[in-house]
Amino acid sequence: MSYSHRIADLQLAERLEAFGAVLIEGPKWCGKTTTAEQMSKSVIKMQDTEMQEEYAATAASKPSLLLMGETPRLIDEWQDAPVLWDAVRTMVDKRQVPGQFILTGSTVVDRSKIHHS
Description:
37% of the residues lie in helices and 15% in strands. By secondary structure, it is an alpha/beta fold. It has a single domain (7-13, 20-107), classed as Rossmann fold (3-Layer(aba) Sandwich). It is globular.
């Protein structure tokens, strides 16, 4: 299936050039992941049924391991492990370079589990 370019492609590219991480939110099936995959060099899909338990366990014990990989690294449905927000913020602050992460999510996040704004 071929990719239909979107206005959001340019916006995402511009934001990746300016910021260490970019968050894409919206309803399910609106193209968030498909758009993000066009720019990403590595991907973790938190809802992958084959890896879901392993990802959750890694996020709970050492979330920084999930951030390793080519950048920009797409973390799809990141809100399934809210601790990833803090891990991404920490890694962005540590590396000090733009275009590291793309986070996509379609459900409400439990903000009590996030420490950084």
